[in-house]
Amino acid sequence: MPISRREFVAASAAGAALAGLDTTAFAAGSGEPDVIVIGAGLSGLEAALTLEENGLKVLVLEGRRRVGGRVYTLFDVPGHPEVGGNSIANAYGRCIAAAKKYGVEIVNLAPRLFANRAGQEFFLGGEHIDLKDWANHPRNPFVGDARKLPPWTWADSMFKQHMPFKDLENWYDANHAQYDMSVHDFLASKGASDAMIRLGYDTNISYGTTSHDVSLLQQAFSDHWQNVNRGAVMGFARNGAASVGSAPAAATPGAAPAANPMANLLVGVFKDGNQNLPIAMAKHLKGDILYGRRVTAISTGDSGASVTCSDGKVYRAKAVVCTMPFSTLRDVAIDPLPPSLQHKAIRTLGYIPITQFHLVSKKPFWEKDGMSPSMWTDGPLGVVLAQRPGNDPNEVTSLTVWCRGQNGLFVDRFGIEDGKRLIISEFERLRPASKGLLSVAATHSWTTDPFSAGDWAIFQPGQVRELRASIAVPHKRLFFAGEHTAVGSRGMEGALESGERASLEVMASLG
Ligand SMILES: Cc1cc2nc3c(=O)[nH]c(=O)nc-3n(C[C@H](O)[C@H](O)[C@H](O)COP(=O)(O)OP(=O)(O)OC[C@H]3O[C@@H](n4cnc5c(N)ncnc54)[C@H](O)[C@@H]3O)c2cc1C
Known about the structure:
Number of helices: 18
Number of strands: 20
Largest sheet: 7 strands, mixed
Strand order of the largest sheet: 5-4-15-16-17-14-18
Number of domains: 3
Helix content: 25-40%
Strand content: 15-25%
Distance between the termini: 39 Å
Bound molecules: flavin-adenine dinucleotide
Radius of gyration: 23 Å
Shape: globular
């Protein structure tokens, strides 16, 4: 028997139950809502809660059978590893406030991360390279002092030296439009060879598939967000584990540097799993969340809008807030069509491909081969991050394999079962001590996931100048939110920023 969201949430106190939801909740049916919010990720929940707090009646339509969207915790894997949003840092003011407001504890992983500075192993072409040998290694494509840098720090050092403007927070300002060029062309203009860019930027890329499809202004935005967080967010940093070693200048923006620069550093996670934040937010909603409602059409007018789902049901309201990533909104028929630049943005905004494998090991093979369990490779394994969520910094509960960019697309081609076999055999090839010990507890491709069709949004060369200003402009009674519309912050914080902005726009429009 179907149950209402309120009954459902009450019946499923444990996050694990909600994550595995396969029952569709349905509307209590008490009349037409004022606002429909599409998407129960952080941006949708923030918008819905803000609208409710201001007296509006809200209905949330969600395609998946869980809340959280790209915040997704594996509650049934040891240590509850994250498939999506990993960590927050000092500038995540809205996330920190939301955790407090909805009763979710933030755990600061910084002390235990710094207690374990084992770093990560470096493999190129299947060969293990000791970093002390790297400067003189024949595979090293860099020149001068850059030869001494691990490849995963090279691009950051190039941007630090050469980013052509300082006010990175104004990354989308028309004054910087001339820099809406590919990262590849920019690095090449500073003397970088293709081999340097391939190893130092494209391998385990953080945005797009290669440096050719990332705008330098996208990079500036990301660097701005790293800077305000003092370069300290491990899980979201471009280089994985090794970035933990880069000390922040001061933990709180504007504050005087602490005597110990690590003292106030926040590498925050939500206790027992990041998905507990959206789960707690959903519990505070008065209105319903309808799960399993894949939106296929949106119609908008001057006084109202309607949303059609794949089961043919039509929902009407005075306004609709759409938080779907543009990668999935592309499949939705919008009537009338948005203005041409907004339509073009919906059709073409870039998204990074990411696929993850979560491995558990029967025994700590890293004790046998004497290396760190974490790795940075140029092969299918991409970046391997040892998860140490507990109080014991030496306890590794699982290993997350991050296949990003072109490598993510590559492993996706194998399908799930062959993909798992590929990852295990590659692992055993690089680390023979792991033979027979590893199993894949979970895998997830954000690229083939029909409700994300990619991971975070990427402005491609030329898109900031041409499309950025049009992305979130209300289309009659259709309003846009989601991380791809944020301009001051990124990731989970960007999602909340966007939900807040869209809810204010709706309230202004409804009067
Ligand atoms: C691997 C990974 C690591 C990350 N690491 C970090 C990190 O360390 N720090 C950080 O700040 N951020 C991180 N992020 C990014 C962060 O998780 C996202 O930016 C944020 O959660 C996006 O929220 P959102 O509400 O904008 O979008 P979403 O969470 O994607 O919400 C959109 C919702 O719309 C729904 N939807 C889509 N299509 C339809 C449809 N047709 N019909 C109905 N519903 C639909 C989706 O199911 C989803 O629930 C990471 C993300 C990933 C995937």
